[in-house]
Amino acid sequence: MSPFSVRPAPRAFTLVELLVVLAIIGLLLALLLPAVQAARESARRMACGNNLHQIGIALHGFHEVHGHFPQGGVEMRTIRGPDGRLLYPHGRQLAWSAFILPYLEQTGLYKQIHFQKAFDSPENAAAAAQIVAVYLCPSVVRPSPVVQGRGACDYGGIYGERITGPNEPPKGTMLYERPIAIRDITDGTARTLLVSEDSGFKDGQWINGLNVFDQAFAINQAPAFENDIRSKHPRGANGLLADASVRFLHEEMDLKILAAICTRAGGEPVGEY
Predict the structure, then answer these.
(1) What's the whole-number mean pLDDT along residues 143-159?
(2) How far, in Å, CA of 39 to CA of 88, rounded?
């Protein structure tokens, strides 16, 4: 080749070609992002289900030692007697989720609680403020895991149901002032809820007995002031059955079946869900 030969300059991208490439990359990202988000949510939902499974194992550990599951709440300030007066206006209002802490490898925290004092007493302030990771659903985005100075809880005990009629006497498995044993669950442990998601409820604190509820609405449909089965998962919520198994409860499930699995001894037929 002659030293005086002129080599052709390398061809550069035109502006149009660059814009086309950027448009293709943007399109690919738009297609991939929902899939990535869905995969992340699927992982979070599985982690939430694992939380409930651990809670189920802890509840059965409690049952093995005491012969029954813990009471849903002790000395609840909202309970009225036959004459209409509050039975425990200054009650301790301690939750089931505080009593099973030793079975969740939280014995140290359990020992810090003054069980003869109220959940919101000064003596229990330091213990109540601690975070128990297994009580937090990873899909819930919150500014702080502390609610009103106490560790949050995204799971509530099942007190019964108000879908088919009044919950009087209470039909569920987590009752106030009364422990329920497996022998009391005549509907079958695989067909009866113990605990379910109640994500983001304003009084959802693991030490506070208000994390118990009777189901009144379709899943994820309750107004904000009601505690009910609700989650941040698309199309449903996780529920813990009395045999310690976990099921994803779809929003579209038949309300009669939802009501049936919220009772321990109703004798209702439960089909596929």
Answers:
(1) 95
(2) 47
Q: Which of 84, 80, 119, 79 is nearest to 99 (CA)?
A: 119
Smallest Cα–Cα separation from 164: which of 269, 260, 273? 260
pLDDT digits (tens, 9 = 90+) for 232-262: 999 999 999 999 999 999 999 999 999 999 9
Contact between 156 and 258 (Cβ < 8 Å) = no
Distance CA 58, CA 31 (A): 42
CA-to-CA distance for 226 and 186, rounded, in angstroms? 28
Q: β-pairing, 150-151 with 155-161?
A: unpaired
Report the Cα 44 to chain-centroid distance in Å.
12
Flag whether the pTM goes above 0.90. no
Retrieve residue 181's tokens. Answer: 């044993």
Could you read off the pLDDT of 207-239 as tens digits, one per residue? 999 999 999 999 999 998 889 999 999 999 999
* Inter-residue long-range contacts of 43-50, CB under 8 Å, 24+ positions, other chains counted: 44/137, 44/138, 44/139, 44/233, 45/139, 45/233, 45/238, 45/248, 47/138, 48/137, 48/138, 48/139, 48/154, 48/197, 48/231, 48/233, 48/238, 49/238, 49/246, 49/248
pLDDT tens, position by position, 162-172? 999 999 999 99
Identify which has the larger pLDDT, 79 or 94: 94
Question: Which carries the bigger pLDDT value, residue 41 or residue 206?
Answer: 206
Q: What is the DSSP letter of 178?
A: B
Which residues does 84 contact at the CB level (< 8 Å), separation at least 6? Answer: none
Cα-based torsion angle of the residue sequence 34, 37, 42, 43 in order, rounded to the nearest 10 degrees = 150
Instruction: Give CA–CA dist 25/44, Å, rounded.
Output: 28
Domain residue ranges in the chain: 30-261
pLDDT of residue 13: 58
